[in-house]
């Protein structure tokens, strides 16, 4: 082999190595590329279509009452249109998620209740913990992998748990006021709500279930639009196991509220059938019949309004722990 051939061989070898590294670390690399764009601009208010009962609370947030003393606080100008939920009892209130760092949610909450407010986040992504610093009583799910990291009472998410770097947000810390054990109730005063651990989207994902009101609040786990299962700590196997449990345990008549929904305006609410559809779609990965489109993330149809987005299969896959 001459010098030219050696140079070609070395060049091809280096290219193969580069492509191999890019494949192995595709998820963090793609997220870093997304971060170069920074936070997208807010939408113009004139371009926002509100739901029938959705009202502007200020220049950024909207509010809609979805049941007695139950409010959704939405961010329709923000590109992710985050929905946080406020559940008010006779003695205290529970805020599920504090939304993105793009707004200030505390004044809106104060306009809706004068009860003491506790906060629980559906998971630790930046668009759900963006205003934790505005509240004194932050609860966390009593999960071993979280509690072990809070020896001094202060919790700090990891970069992969928070993901704020994709829009230029720093990782926050907050004082943990209490630990809420999954499968136990909290009494808000004439209103009992139950915490459920629902890993899949993230290991720390939780849902709040108001059994009497037949309301189930599940963050980013499911809902109309895209289900993100390609994140660094997502798991399709766990998603399937959790979804099977929810389909078996939840009643036939229930309103399931999500934190995002890009299939329609207004509150992103579905029913038990949406989880049945998700179970069917995830089971297709297990039996090897799932058919997706796109390169990264891969998109797989769940139903007419929903798709699940996954990583590519292979070594160090962010989510493809099913075939």
TrEMBL record:
Domain Metallo-beta-lactamase: 81-260
Membrane-spanning segments: 6-25
GO molecular function: hydrolase activity
Keywords tagged on the record: Hydrolase, Membrane, Transmembrane, Transmembrane helix
Gene3D superfamilies: Ribonuclease Z/Hydroxyacylglutathione hydrolase-like
Record InterPro entries: Metallo-B-lactamas (IPR001279), NDM-1-like (IPR050855), RibonucZ/Hydroxyglut_hydro (IPR036866)
One protein family per Pfam: Lactamase_B
Protein name in the entry: Zn-dependent hydrolases, including glyoxylases
Organism: Candidatus Phaeomarinibacter ectocarpi
């Amino acid at each position: 082999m001459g010098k030219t051939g050696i140079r070609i061989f070395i060049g091809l070898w280096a290219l193969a190595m580069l492509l191999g590294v890019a494949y192995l670390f595709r998820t963090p690399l793609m997220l870093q590329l997304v971060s170069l764009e920074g936070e997208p601009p807010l939408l113009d208010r004139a371009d926002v279509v509100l739901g029938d009962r959705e009202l502007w609370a200020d220049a950024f947030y909207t509010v809609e009452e979805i049941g007695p003393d139950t409010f959704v606080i939405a961010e329709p100008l923000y590109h992710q249109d985050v929905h946080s939920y406020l559940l008010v009892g006779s003695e205290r209130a529970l805020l599920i998620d504090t939304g993105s760092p793009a707004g200030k949610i505390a004044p809106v909450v104060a306009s809706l209740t004068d009860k003491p407010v506790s906060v629980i986040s559906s998971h630790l992504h930046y668009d759900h913990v963006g205003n934790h610093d505005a509240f004194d009583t932050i609860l966390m799910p009593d999960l071993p992998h979280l509690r072990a990291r809070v020896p001094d009472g202060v919790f700090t998410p990891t970069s992969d748990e928070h993901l704020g770097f994709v829009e230029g947000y720093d990782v926050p810390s907050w004082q943990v006021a209490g630990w809420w054990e999954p499968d136990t109730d909290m009494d808000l005063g004439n209103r009992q709500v139950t915490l459920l651990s629902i890993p899949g989207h993230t290991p720390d994902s939780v849902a709040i279930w108001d059994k009497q009101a037949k309301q189930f609040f599940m963050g980013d786990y499911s809902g109309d639009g895209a289900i993100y299962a390609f994140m660094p700590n997502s798991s399709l196997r766990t998603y399937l196991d959790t979804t099977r449990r929810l389909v078996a345990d939840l009643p036939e008549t229930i309103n399931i509220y999500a934190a995002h929904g890009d299939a329609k305006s207004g509150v992103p609410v579905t029913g038990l059938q949406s989880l049945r559809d998700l179970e069917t779609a995830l089971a297709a990965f297990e039996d090897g019949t799932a058919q997706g489109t796109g390169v990264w993330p891969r998109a797989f149809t769940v139903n007419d309004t929903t798709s699940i987005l996954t990583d590519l299969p292979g070594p160090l896959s962010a989510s493809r722990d099913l075939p």
